[in-house]
Design goal:
384 residues, alpha/beta, 6-stranded mixed beta sheet, 15 strands, single chain
């Protein structure tokens, strides 16, 4: 079991908490964490696992502990069953336990089924199976409600983190103003603007929304020859073609595949092109469209705090340069093209040192700031 450096500070913080530390895993899986705990003079109370052994107790013995007095660190690479076991006996993620190889506030129960067109989507037990990749805020039976669709990547994914996403906070802001509204939150972790575009055309127009809002940019900063191809789709086609198992008109397919033309233009040009195409689709169907160039850490490259430098160095060291370059190029293009439906909020957190948890993801406070800025831009439209 390897722990990424960016999760190490969280691990030390958990080990040094005032609660009794219990590890979940077998002897080999937990020995590294035990050594770290020893270095910080915080002994591990004991180890649990699915089954009792010479070195571990059964996790069911945790029932006899005072839940307020203990914190459990799951040390398994294959951690999902351990999480399920703990949830079934009353423990809650992050409040009572955490997986040491995952980011602290990631929703461990989010599932990512494959998607035949877009690569993959997300699903959770609480979602309506008819709408994969969409979390609904509001009463869908209300025919008078103003309907908004939100799209983006993980920073717009309503299931990715344990705290409220900006779409939910936006919904709650409208509720306080006594406005009847439904928000279909359709951001999915890892989606580029190209996947947003495909999902909008294929699925989201079916909601007949009054407005579509895109918050994106950071996933388009990574170099790719084929921006419409998701990495999972590529992996599936590699397996498919190497096995040579398909029939096309009675003949075996060639052991190769195409991803279409290679990308034309720069990353910034492609992002704006996809945004413009989403706007064109919305305009054709009389839907109001707003796009927001999302905050990312490259916006404040010259003014990073020590904490933010640590986030960059321990996480993705290249994210600083690539996001700065992308933002510079997009801003130049926006000046030239004067696209009035694209709003640049990339500098939203430049004067706040506490909201980033990595190069682009933010705390609930950050999501609230995003929701506030979007609300300011669209409130008058919903009033019409």
């Amino acid at each position: 079991m390897n722990i990424e450096l960016r999760y190490f500070n969280d691990l030390i913080s958990d080990i040094l908490c005032e609660k009794k530390i219990i590890l979940y895993g077998n002897l080999d899986e937990t020995k590294r964490i035990q050594r770290i705990a020893d270095l910080y003079h915080k002994p591990v109370s004991y180890i649990v696992d699915e089954k009792e052994s010479l070195y571990t107790r059964s996790y069911l013995e945790l029932i006899y502990e005072d839940i307020e007095d203990i914190f459990i660190l799951i040390c398994k690479n294959d951690y999902l069953q351990a999480c399920i076991n703990l949830e079934e006996i009353g423990f809650k993620q992050q409040l009572n336990y955490r997986v040491v190889i995952k980011a602290k506030y990631v929703n461990l129960f989010q599932k990512f089924p494959l998607d035949i067109n877009i690569g993959y989507t997300y699903f959770t037990e609480q979602m309506d199976e008819k709408y994969p990749g969409v979390t609904i805020f509001g009463n869908t039976e209300n025919s008078n409600a103003y309907k908004i669709v939100t799209v983006g990547g993980s920073t717009s994914d309503s299931q990715a983190y344990l705290w409220k996403c900006w779409s939910q906070i936006l919904f709650e802001k409208f509720l306080t103003k006594k406005k009847e509204i439904i928000i279909y939150s359709a951001g999915v972790s890892g989606y580029r603007s190209s996947q947003e575009l495909m999902k909008l055309e294929r699925d989201l127009l079916n909601f007949m929304p009054d407005m579509v809002i895109s918050l994106s940019g950071v996933n388009d900063t990574g170099e790719t020859e084929h921006p419409f191809v998701q990495v999972y789709s590529e992996q599936i086609f590699n397996i498919f073609c190497n096995a040579n198992i398909s029939d096309m008109n009675g003949a075996k397919t060639a052991q190769s595949y195409t991803s279409g033309f290679k990308k034309q233009g720069t990353l910034a040009e492609n992002w704006i092109k996809h945004i413009r195409m989403m706007n064109a689709i919305c305009h054709e169907f009389n839907i109001r469209f707003y796009a927001f160039l999302q905050p990312m850490i490259g916006s404040k490259k010259e003014n990073l705090s020590q904490r933010e430098w640590e986030l960059v160095i321990n996480g993705e060291p290249d994210i600083l340069d690539r996001t700065e370059l992308f933002l510079t190029n997009v801003k130049e293009l926006l000046k030239e093209q004067k696209v009035n439906y694209i709003h640049d909020i990339s500098d939203l957190f430049d004067k706040n040192e506490s909201v980033y948890i990595d190069g682009c993801h933010v705390t609930e406070e950050g999501n609230r700031m995003i929701a506030d800025r979007i609300f300011e831009a669209i409130d008058f439209e919903v009033d019409r």
